[in-house]
Amino acid sequence: MIAYKFLRRDGTSVFTGFSWPLPGEGSPGEWIEADLEPCRSGIHACRVAHLPLWAGQVMYEVELAGDIAMDGTKVIGSRGRLTRRLEAWDELRDSYTRMCADRAHELARAPTPALEEWEAVIEPALGEGPALLGFVTARIAEELSGAEGYRAERARQSQWLAERLGLQTSEE
User: Fold this and answer.
1) Residue 22 in contact with residue 29, Cβ under 8 Å?
2) Domain boundaries of the chain, sorted by first residue
3) Please, what's the b/e burial string for 100-112 (b: 16 or more CB within 10 A of its CB; e: otherwise)?
4) The pLDDT of residue 172
5) Exposure of 65 by Cβ count < 10 A (0-12 exposed, 13-18 middle, 19+ buried)?
6) pLDDT tens digit string along 64-77?
7) 136 near 123, Cβ under 8 Å?
8) Residue 26: pLDDT band with limits 50, 70, 90
């Protein structure tokens, strides 16, 4: 199964610090194995629909194999390897973050009176990166339209990323 993983620039996992075997010129990284236990053990990744939740510094395509489990916003395998770095993300990361900020402003300014408490956090959050700005935007949408607003905004963000990264949006 193909999924996606965000790592730090040095190839380490954001949550565990695990140093991933990186892919080389045209060849995938080495397989790694772990017991499959969601949020505890296993090779954790995400599908296209959940990219905004996990957006980070560097993005890789990951191949999962062995036992595979879906767990909410993530997919976990007992085996996995990085197949390629999605270098397009390097070019899009700042654009995506700015798009989220602009959309957050648009949503926060829509009602009368405007949602000033949200307006105040948007620009300062830019430096924190794409995951936070996507979340802020979705939360503003939720405040305006409830849970459906949140889901719709996250779907909009996923679609934006999928189109620009050339990823299939249908989940297997």
Assistant:
1) yes
2) 2-85, 90-165
3) bbebbbebbeeee
4) 46
5) middle
6) 999 999 988 999 99
7) no
8) confident
